[in-house]
Amino acid sequence: MSATEKTPAKLVFAAPRRAKPPRHLADLTSAERREAVAELGEKPFRADQLSRHYFARLADDPAEMTDLPAAVRERLANELLPELLTPVRELTCDGGKTLKTVWKAFDGVLFESVLMRYPDRATMCVSSQAGCGMNCPFCATGQAGLTRNLSTAEIVEQVAAGARAMARGKITGGPGRVSNIVFMGMGEPLANYKAVLGAVRRITDPAPAGLGISQRSVTVSTVGLVPAIEKLAAEDMSVRLALSLHAPDDELRDELVPINNRWKVSEVLDAAWAYAAKSGRRVSIEYALIKDINDQAWRADLLGKLLRGHLVHVNLIPLNPTPGSKWTASRPQDEKEFVHRLESHGVPVTVRDTRGREIDGACGQLAATTKD
């Protein structure tokens, strides 16, 4: 199929109805935790103790919570700290500095997260859905379809698990902490808006109410759900918005990002600029470079004209290979020319480090498989 041929858009916004994950401490606000503990017949301050263990001390074994009486500890742990995720496969690369985990939820659903340690930071890439309904043809996750939305606690637990791995020295480089969160794993975050917003709150609330990671260190990605971008802007937060654009023209983007059939490039960018104005954060434009599809010099010029003068930064992503894909990464000379053209328009641009490619843990590769 050529880049100009059209296929019907297969967009799924609502996940199929399934049993809900068990209630977890991370699903609740601080006030809701105290209410939940009181409903169980315990003093409300016990909720603060539980929160301190989970969010501040990163405890994952109730036996460690020795400031709670044994009977109380067992009851509260059963009710508010149920086991949500089980690691069924772990893969490492980059000398042990990149860890991909395949998680199994209570209902057997699989999804993935990736922890990446750099010299100056440790970034956790989390999933917001099991699968994805956006149907982008170059993305392994999109081709799998949407299974269900993740709960707030299922998202937070990915981060907490990464934080434990860092704190316990599991990642090469010795003990450390997770400093950055990117919602760039499986799923379209803004299609699971309520749970994602709750997760951002838990991740960024000061300890012990939450994990205490700065909002400015959190990035929420989207393929361009305009009403949800506008809603996020109204939340008055300082998280970074990452827009997966992948094409500057509607004709090509209709194919590469089928949601473009509903909200065109101009509408999506207008929403992004409004978010930047409200948050004061520059928008990150994600652009996967695909050989002979979207990497032409004239498209770089068109993209530069659309972006210049705005609070923006472009992340060029060499396309990561996925099974059965006919597409591949751009030639080095075309990538270099694309960068040059954007810079000539005064648009800041970098080429993203493709961490995790060897373990299918890079952008567009997450498919939640337990097979080699």
UniProtKB/TrEMBL annotation:
Pfam families: Radical_SAM, RlmN_N. The keyword S-adenosyl-L-methionine applies. Its main location: cytoplasm. Residues 118-358 form the Radical SAM core domain. One of its GO terms (molecular function) is tRNA binding. GO terms for biological process: rRNA base methylation; tRNA methylation. InterPro entries: Aldolase_TIM, Elp3/MiaA/NifB-like_rSAM, Methyltransferase_A, RlmN_N, RNA_MTrfase_RlmN, rRNA_lsu_MTrfase_RlmN/Cfr, rSAM, rSAM_sf. The keyword Methyltransferase applies. It is found in: Cytoplasm. [4Fe-4S] cluster binds at residues 132, 136, 139. Coiled coil: none annotated. Binds 1 [4Fe-4S] cluster. The cluster is coordinated with 3 cysteines and an exchangeable S-adenosyl-L-methionine. Its EC number is 2.1.1.192. It is an enzyme of class 2 (transferase). S-adenosyl-L-methionine binds at residues 187-188, 221, 244-246, 320. The active site is at 112 (proton acceptor), 363 (s-methylcysteine intermediate). It catalyses: adenosine(37) in tRNA + 2 reduced [2Fe-2S]-[ferredoxin] + 2 S-adenosyl-L-methionine = 2-methyladenosine(37) in tRNA + 5'-deoxyadenosine + L-methionine + 2 oxidized [2Fe-2S]-[ferredoxin] + S-adenosyl-L-homocysteine; adenosine(2503) in 23S rRNA + 2 reduced [2Fe-2S]-[ferredoxin] + 2 S-adenosyl-L-methionine = 2-methyladenosine(2503) in 23S rRNA + 5'-deoxyadenosine + L-methionine + 2 oxidized [2Fe-2S]-[ferredoxin] + S-adenosyl-L-homocysteine. HAMAP family: RNA_methyltr_RlmN. Belongs to the radical SAM superfamily. RlmN family. Reaction proceeds by a ping-pong mechanism involving intermediate methylation of a conserved cysteine residue. NCBIfam families: rRNA_mod_RlmN. This is Probable dual-specificity RNA methyltransferase RlmN. The gene is rlmN.
